[in-house]
Write a structure and sequence with these properties.
Helix 1 links the parallel strand 1 and strand 2. The chain folds into two domains: 219 residues, Alpha-Beta Complex (Spore Coat Polysaccharide Biosynthesis Protein SpsA, Chain A); 33 residues. Helix 5 crosses helix 6. The chain is globular and about 45 Å long. It contains eight helices and ten strands. A seven-stranded mixed β-sheet has the order 3-2-1-4-7-6-8. By secondary structure, it is an alpha/beta fold.
Length: 257
C-alpha cells in the first residue's frame, strides 16, 4: 500500500479548523491509502492518533505565518522522504466527497488547482509577481495558469525539492527586504511554471461563500462566519459573527421562496 504525508498548519485561531478537517480527510481523502499528518501548531489537541504528529510552531503574525510555511516544512524533510506522496492543505479546507487516485500526479510531478477567481481571464490579469527584484518574478509573457496555494501535492522527492527551493527563494527575497505580492502563493506559481503539473479544477478548493457552479469535492470554509480574516491573522479570541450568519441564512431563505 502506498502512503502519503499530509502537511497542515494551524497556529493561533486557525486551530478551530483542525478537528473537522482531520475527520473529513480520514473519511474522504484517499481512504485506501495510509496517511500521516504533520500538524504545525501552537495548540494542544485531544486528538491523539498514531497517524498524527504535532510539531510545535509559534504563531509569528501575518504574513509570515503563511510566508514561512516552506521554512516549517524544511525542518522535517528527513521524515517526508519515506512517503510516496506529500500533500499540503490550508487550515480551513473541508473535504465533502470521496477523493481517490484521480488526485494523484501519476505521470506528472505535481498536482495543483486553478484559482477560481481567475478561470477564463486573460493571462495579463493573473496576479503574478511582476517585480524583477523578486525570486517569484514572472514575465508578462509567461505563465498559462494561476494556481491557488491552499492545496497542492506531489511525489515526495519532487515535493521536497519544491520545499527547499521555495524556502531559499523566500529567504533571498527577505534578505533584500522584499515580500512577493501574494507571499508563498507567488513563489509556488513561479516554481510550477515550468514543471509537469496535473491541473485540478476549482471543485477541489471552492470557497464556501461562492455561488457553486461545481460539484464541490473540497471547500475552503468562510472565515467571515467566524470573525473575519483579520481575527485569524492575530491571536485574538474567536467570536461568532451573528450578523453575518443571520444575513447568510436570510439570503438562503429568500432564494427558496
Amino acid at each position: 500500500m502506498e502512503n502519503l504525508a499530509v502537511l497542515y498548519i494551524c497556529t493561533g485561531n486557525y486551530s478551530i479548523f483542525w478537528k473537522k478537517f482531520y475527520s473529513s480527510s480520514e473519511k474522504y481523502f484517499l481512504p485506501e491509502y495510509k496517511k500521516k499528518y504533520f500538524v504545525f501548531t501552537d495548540k494542544k489537541f485531544n486528538i491523539k492518533n498514531s497517524n498524527i504528529e504535532y510539531i510545535y510552531t509559534k504563531k509569528i503574525g501575518w504574513p509570515y505565518d503563511t510566508l514561512y510555511r516552506f521554512n516549517f516544512f524544511s525542518k522535517i524533510t528527513d521524515k517526508l522522504i519515506c512517503f510516496d506522496y506529500i500533500f499540503f492543505f490550508n487550515a480551513n479546507a473541508l473535504i465533502l466527497k470521496e477523493i481517490n487516485s484521480e488526485i494523484l500526479p501519476l505521470d506528472k510531478d505535481f498536482v495543483a488547482p486553478l484559482h477560481p477567481c481567475f478561470i477564463g481571464k486573460d493571462i495579463d490579469q493573473f496576479p503574478f509577481e511582476r517585480n524583477i527584484l523578486s525570486k517569484a518574478f514572472i514575465d508578462k509573457y509567461d505563465g498559462l495558469y494561476y494556481f491557488q496555494a491552499c492545496l497542492f501535492g506531489g511525489k515526495s522527492s519532487n515535493f521536497i525539492e519544491l520545499i527547499n527551493e521555495i524556502y531559499q527563494n523566500i529567504e533571498t527575497d527577505l534578505s533584500n527586504n522584499f515580500i512577493a505580492i501574494w507571499h508563498d502563493e507567488s513563489h509556488l506559481n513561479k516554481y510550477l511554471i515550468d514543471k509537469k503539473v496535473k491541473i485540478l479544477d476549482s471543485s477541489y478548493i471552492y470557497p464556501e461563500n461562492f455561488i457553486d457552479p461545481y460539484k464541490n469535492k473540497i471547500i475552503m470554509r468562510d472565515k467571515n462566519m467566524l470573525g473575519g480574516h483579520e481575527l485569524f491573522r492575530t491571536s485574538g479570541r474567536i467570536h461568532f459573527n451573528i450578523k453575518l450568519f443571520y444575513n447568510k441564512i436570510k439570503k438562503t431563505l429568500l432564494k427558496l421562496r
